[in-house]
Design goal:
This protein has ten helices and no strands. With 191 residues, the protein is mostly helical. α5 runs antiparallel to α6, α5 packs parallel to α7 and α7 runs parallel beside α9. It is globular and about 55 Å long. About 4% of the residues have low confidence.
């Protein structure tokens, strides 16, 4: 296998492991493991500086996030910052960090990024938590998908209505692109 030019040893799985890492795992036994041990990959994948520096971004204040973003103008603002694979944009939306959200959007944060567990984006989170100003900022962005559903097909309107966010519901309903007929998995619409 190792003599074949198409075989690449410097590849990584979803958990950041190389074939050598997998081969060294005592729980995993397969024939290729011995071959990989004889010819290890050159280096481990480096951990992105942004993630390692702000891994605890969920607990960081808005000023800490703003300071970091201003001091690191070329950082990857779309890096996933917690175990649910949320982006900083989703965290800022949940916490109501308006200035951080504005800066993240200016740095081209991926507004369509969804969390891994439930596929919720920043608009879902802001609407469900009653963050009216954040919802306004997100709705002003041309790439916002107001009818996008999460894992259970809940839209931002579903979240706002379910949690009784009286200021957010009319704001979403005033959007010309909103579709009130979108149904959740159980067949219910937001109204």
């Amino acid at each position: 296998l190792l003599t074949m030019p198409a075989i690449k040893l410097n590849v990584y799985d979803a958990r950041g492991r190389t074939p050598l890492d997998i081969a060294e795992d005592p729980k995993i036994r397969f024939t290729a493991g011995a071959a990989l041990l004889r010819n290890p990959p050159a280096k481990k994948r480096p951990v992105p500086k942004f993630k390692s520096t702000l891994k605890s971004v969920v607990d960081a204040s808005e000023d800490d996030i703003l300071t970091y973003l201003q001091e690191n103008p070329h950082c990857d603002v779309n890096v996933e910052v917690n175990d649910n694979r949320e982006s900083m944009l989703i965290v800022a939306a949940r916490k109501g960090y308006e200035r951080a959200l504005c800066l993240l959007l200016a740095k081209h944060a991926d507004i369509s990024h969804t969390s891994a567990r439930n596929f919720r984006n920043a608009l879902h989170v802001a609407a469900g938590n009653g963050k009216t100003n954040i919802v306004c900022q997100l709705l002003d962005h041309p790439s916002t998908q107001v009818n996008l559903g999460d894992a259970g097909r809940w839209t931002a309107l579903h979240f706002a209505a379910y949690w009784g966010e009286a200021d957010v519901v009319p704001l979403l309903l005033s959007q010309p692109r909103i579709d009130v007929s979108v149904e959740q998995e159980d067949g219910k619409n937001a109204l």
